[in-house]
């Protein structure tokens, strides 16, 4: 399992076809994405790491909202299951 903490508002984990996102200031404990293909999971995980550069200058509250919106847009045409807990 890989783990990478991006900032104080966000961390992401990957394990084979599963990617889990934790946001610091939301009511959800985590968002879990289960992909059909390991390549899709790896691509999504890498994209989650890459987004940091484009939002690092936003306020902390805007970073989380912007990142969450970006996640939904990125997964628009990808086959995955979603669990929020």
Short description:
The protein is 39% helix and 33% strand. With 85 residues, it is an alpha+beta fold.
In helices, the fraction of residues equals 25-40%
Calculate the mean pLDDT score and round it: 86
Number-wise, the strands total 5
Strand order of the largest sheet: 1-2-3-4-5
How many DSSP H or I helices? 2
Radius of gyration: 12 Å
| Strand content bin | 25-35%
Shape: globular
SSE arrangement, N to C: EEEEHHE
In terms of per-residue confidence, which ranges show pLDDT below 50 for 5 or more consecutive residues? Answer: none
Judged by helices, strands and strand pairing, the structural class is alpha+beta
Largest sheet: 5 strands, antiparallel
Distance between the termini: 20 Å
- What quaternary form is this? single chain
Number of domains: 1
Question: How would you describe this protein?
Answer:
The chain has one domain (2-84). Helix content is 39%, strand content 33%. It has helices at 38-55, 60-74, and strands spanning 2-7, 10-15, 18-23, 31-35, 80-84. Helix 1 (38-55) runs antiparallel to helix 2.
Secondary-structure blueprint:
Blueprint: E1 2-7, E2 10-15, E3 18-23, E4 31-35, H1 38-55, H2 60-74, E5 80-84
Antiparallel strand pairs: 1-2, 2-3, 3-4, 4-5
Helix pairs in contact: 1-2
Which descriptors would you attach to this protein?
85 residues, alpha+beta, five-stranded antiparallel beta sheet, 33% strand, globular
């Amino acid at each position: 399992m890989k783990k990478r903490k991006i900032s104080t508002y966000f961390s992401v984990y990957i394990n084979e076809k599963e990617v889990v996102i934790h946001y610091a200031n939301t009511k959800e404990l985590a968002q879990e994405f289960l992909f059909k293909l390991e390549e899709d999971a790896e691509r999504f995980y890498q994209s989650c790491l890459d987004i940091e550069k484009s939002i690092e200058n936003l306020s902390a509250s805007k970073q989380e909202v912007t990142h969450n919106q970006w996640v939904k847009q990125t997964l628009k045409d990808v086959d995955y299951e979603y669990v929020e807990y």
